[in-house]
């Protein structure tokens, strides 16, 4: 039976307390990181905000709703997603090998490959626009013949959750929780769809890097980009944070669950203690309303911790 059916709005306080205590016991332990540099990070004062969405186009199976009041402690967050230049510093200092490098391949969007060669590559059955490319990794985003040399300020891609977490720990930081990420992305706006408001293109302005056109056949690139853009290509939100929606997905610390947050504590919530997949936020340059409108601030999805693609990166958080 669905536990929600046992909790009408008039449920006794003790019943609610028992559910809350159970959820806390099953939560992942909240991690703290306080040693990393705060250069190029913003201090966010935290506080109470409304998390989630009940919009008509909310992705219900993802667990976007209900809208609920959540309290976040103050924390620091990277002003930008981690760039190729910054990730290279981590690799140089540690000798770390990413998951894509260990596996010897990663997923690359078909539109970024030679069409003749792309036809011969293996593709996942449900998402055939992704191609398995040998030699694709963070240094070689579209395959072994490509390079990040001219992209130092682009977000690092082909970074798995394992890679992102390792980089964050090395830097004395951590990955943000989903609640922290959404608080930051909203920039102080309440019940708005995007970091800047409810209109996707106010007065015709493109404020993020997403897909325009017929997905996956043709990206019109009306926003100026058909691949990851530099991290400062679009204006920041009201908190001063860049690229909080579109461009590349960002890993969060939490294990993903579509309904766990319905029972989780409302103060500094974290995900369940375990699971098959980690949470991702923000959408990417491949998102389009016709099939994936997850570039909204309340949208969420997930992937396995060792997964890597050309549209998946991260940013780091730090406690005060």
Describe the structure in brief:
This protein has 320 residues and is of the alpha+beta class. 16% of the residues lie in helices and 16% in strands. It starts with 12 loop residues before the first helix and ends with a strand.
Gyration radius (Cα, Å) is 19 Å
> What structural class should be given to the helix and strand makeup?
alpha+beta
What would you say the CATH architecture is? Answer: Alpha-Beta Complex
Q: What is the H/E order?
A: HEEEEHHEHEHHEEEEEEE
CATH superfamily grouping: paralog of FGE (formylglycine-generating enzyme)
Residue stretches low in confidence (pLDDT < 50, at least 5 long) are 1-13
CATH class: Alpha Beta
Shape: globular
Number of helices: 6
Provide an overview of this structure.
The chain has 320 residues and is of the alpha+beta class. It has a single domain (12-319), classed as Alpha-Beta Complex (paralog of FGE (formylglycine-generating enzyme)), CATH 3.90.1580.10. It contains 6 helices and 13 strands. It has helices at residues 13-25, 84-94, 99-103, 115-118, 161-170, 178-186, and strands at residues 41-44, 47-51, 68-72, 75-78, 105-109, 130-134, 213-214, 218-219, 249-255, 278-281, 301-303, 312-313, 317-319. Strands 11-10-9-12 form a 4-stranded mixed beta sheet. A hairpin with a 3-residue loop joins β7 and β8. The chain is globular. The model is unreliable at 1-13 (pLDDT under 50).
């Amino acid at each position: 039976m669905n536990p929600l059916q046992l909790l009408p709005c008039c449920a006794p306080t003790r019943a609610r307390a028992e559910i809350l205590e159970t959820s806390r016991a099953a939560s992942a332990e909240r991690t703290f990181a306080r040693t990393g540099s705060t250069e190029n990070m913003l201090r966010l004062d935290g506080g109470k905000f409304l998390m989630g969405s009940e919009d008509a186009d909310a992705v219900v199976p993802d667990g976007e709703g209900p809208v609920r009041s959540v309290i976040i402690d103050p924390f620091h967050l990277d002003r930008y997603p981690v760039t190729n230049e910054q990730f290279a510093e981590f690799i140089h200092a540690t000798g770390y090998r990413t998951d894509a490098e260990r596996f010897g391949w990663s997923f690359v969007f078909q539109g970024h490959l030679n069409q003749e060669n792309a036809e011969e590559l293996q593709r996942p059955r449900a998402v055939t626009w992704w191609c398995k490319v040998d030699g694709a990794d963070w240094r070689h985003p579209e395959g072994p013949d490509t390079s990040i040399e001219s992209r130092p300020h682009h977000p690092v891609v082909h970074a798995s959750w394992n890679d992102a977490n390792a980089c964050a720990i090395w830097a004395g930081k951590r990955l943000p929780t989903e609640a922290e990420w959404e608080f930051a992305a909203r920039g102080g706006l309440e019940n708005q769809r995007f970091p800047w408001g409810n209109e996707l293109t106010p007065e015709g302005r493109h404020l993020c890097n997403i897909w325009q056109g017929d997905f996956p056949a043709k990206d019109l690139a009306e926003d100026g980009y058909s691949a990851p853009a530099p991290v400062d290509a679009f204006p920041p939100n009201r908190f001063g944070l860049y690229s909080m929606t579109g461009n590349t997905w960002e890993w969060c610390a939490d294990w993903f669950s579509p309904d766990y947050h319905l029972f989780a504590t409302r103060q500094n919530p974290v995900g369940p203690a375990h699971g098959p997949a980690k949470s991702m936020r923000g959408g990417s340059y491949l998102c389009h309303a016709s099939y994936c409108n997850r570039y909204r601030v309340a949208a969420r999805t997930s992937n396995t911790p060792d997964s890597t693609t050309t549209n998946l990166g991260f940013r780091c958080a730090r406690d005060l």
